[in-house]
Design goal:
The complex is a heterodimer of chains A (164) and B (104). By secondary structure, chain A is of the alpha/beta class. Chain A has 6 helices and 5 strands, in the order βαβαααβαβαβ. A 5-stranded parallel β-sheet of chain A has the order 4-3-2-1-5, sandwiched between helices. Classes of the chains: A alpha/beta (164), B mainly alpha (104).
């Protein structure tokens, strides 16, 4: 085997974007780390904060405009003009969420619950929380705390940082 | 594929240490594998989880931490406490079933 024998001990994932796929990438990596016995932190900032904002967390969207990877079910090209029609983005996003549920991938809130139960730490970015004028009660109950970038680096010390 | 001796029996394991013949599994083998993986004593709760995993394997269903958490046998937190440092990987290894292939 070419892989290194040395195990990754700790990862800190930064989730800075709020689209469905960006948030899921961060959640899968954080939860996956815990599944492997790796210590894990996840830090939500800017639009990534939507994933830990109660009103938005279970309604994240995938972009149907400006998304070159977007395709019709079955693989045909997805005309960009379709993406601007009312309801299309919501419909596509709902299909994505359904597709994930079929693969046993949980909704965002349940995914956060899993990470929390697994001992992963969940943080919100103070600067972004202030910018979006969010209150603690607007945010995911089991979030560990709202921290500054300096505190994030302290918590990430000794591990790898992944920016999604 | 290699062979190794555990609890006085020879078992066949794959490159990741998972048993390749479930019929060679016994409670003694499980206890031996658990020790090798840092779990000194298998408590009644451990055995309940092992039984559940083996049942799911026999039903050919795909295992995930989410599914174990919803099984009613253990919740996710307890599962991590029982089998620290990679609960699903460890629990399946000790249960004598193949390494789970899911990402969640």
């Amino acid at each position: 085997m070419a892989e290194s024998k040395e195990k990754i001990k700790k990862v800190s994932v930064i989730c800075a974007k709020g689209s469905l796929e960006d948030v899921y990438a961060a959640l899968v990596m954080t939860n996956g780390a815990r599944m492997e016995g790796i210590e894990a932190n996840i830090f939500f900032t800017f639009f990534g904060l939507d994933a830990i904002t109660k009103k938005k967390m279970n309604k994240l969207h995938t972009a149907t405009v400006g998304n070159p990877a977007m395709a019709m079910p079955g693989g045909l090209p997805f005309p960009t003009i379709l993406g601007v029609l009312p309801g299309v983005e919501a419909g596509v996003s709902a299909m994505m969420r359904k597709g994930m549920d079929d693969l046993d991938i949980p909704p965002v809130e349940e995914f956060l619950d899993m990470i929390n139960a697994a001992g992963g730490k969940i943080y919100g970015c103070k600067l972004a929380v202030d910018m979006f004028k969010l209150k603690r009660e607007d945010m995911y109950d089991d979030m560990d705390s709202i921290i500054t970038i300096g505190e994030f680096y302290e918590k990430a010390a000794g591990g790898q940082i992944i920016f999604t | 594929m290699s062979q190794k001796e555990i609890a006085g029996v020879t078992i066949e394991v794959d490159d990741s240490g998972y048993m390749t013949k479930f019929e060679d599994w016994s409670k003694e083998v499980a206890a031996g594998l658990a020790k090798e993986n840092g779990i000194d004593v298998l408590t009644p709760k451990h055995w309940e989880v092992i039984e559940y995993i083996q049942k799911e394997f026999q039903n050919e269903s795909t295992l995930s931490i989410r599914k174990v958490g919803k099984s009613g046998v253990v919740d996710i937190k307890e599962f991590y406490n029982l089998f620290p440092d990679g609960p699903l990987k460890k629990a399946t290894l000790i249960s004598g079933v193949p390494k789970p292939s899911g990402c969640v």
